[in-house]
Amino acid sequence: MIPQKLALVTGGSRGIGRATCIELARVGHAVLINYNENLGAAEEARELVAAVGVPADICQADISSSTDRDLLVEFALEKFGRIDLLVNNAGVAPPVRQDVLLTTEESYDRILNINLRSPYFLTQRVARTMIELIEAKTIPSASIVNISSLRSYTAARNYGEYCLSKAGVSMMTKLYAVRLAEHGINVYEVCPGIIETDMTSGDATREYYNSRLAKGMTPINRWGKPEEVGRAVAAIARGDFPFSTGAVFDVDGGWHLRHL
Ligand code: NAP
Description:
Blueprint: E1 6-9, H1 15-26, E2 30-35, H2 39-52, E3 56-60, H3 66-80, E4 85-88, H4 105-135, E5 142-147, H5 160-180, E6 185-192, H6 203-214, H7 226-237, E7 248-251
Parallel strand pairs: 1-2, 1-4, 2-3, 4-5, 5-6, 6-7
The chain binds NADP nicotinamide-adenine-dinucleotide phosphate.
NADP nicotinamide-adenine-dinucleotide phosphate binds near residues 41 and 89.
């Protein structure tokens, strides 16, 4: 077993996930970077994490497959001997934004499956393992961080299935926080605003948010950076919030504040 704490980050190869892996390495965590399709990006992320000086590896697994979820957890245990932190970060946006009156069942099922069903059952799988590790005194405690979105509470009429999936991630955080506290596992939600990643790099998306920002969209009126989300996760991973569980950390330039 490695001496460092092990963080398992889903979708750790690109965007917010990659930045999170690097920030976790900077606070001394070994990192297992999960990815699905893009091996090159995952290898790049592994090099960046290893350059910080901690053990790092990659593991291909489609988190929407129950077989792959099992393999991911088994890989982590075989390679590192422990899981101290799970970051449920992997997520997708609908390729086509459609009015809620036009959402297709296919898109609804795909988005809810990847963004909500997958982290729900991965958390169930990992939490059982964490409980075993804690009971065996292999690790003293553990944490889980779920990456939600401002869309979890902001209704976007052309993004219904994504909003629903992220609202579900918020409730999932509360459910597991309540259930796992007695085992020494705290669960947190990190709720990003608009962050510059591949997910928001399409011309239409970029133009939309740039025009909103030009009119003063958020109190801190700019795009967020992936590392700003990663640093919030790293602060949690450092163990600075032992008496908090189910808490929401907004990393959104103040978007969540109602103001006049
Ligand atoms: P991104 O740049 O598109 O990266 C997505 C990551 O998820 C990639 O590493 C991708 O791996 C992985 N992934 C996708 N489907 C997967 C699957 N089925 N199994 C395993 N991995 C999978 O996205 P991002 O902007 O960093 O977003 C990360 C998270 O933050 C998502 O949950 C997103 O909803 C949330 N978020 C983003 C923003 C934003 O403005 N960007 C705002 C709020 C919340 P491959 O490349 O290998 O497929």
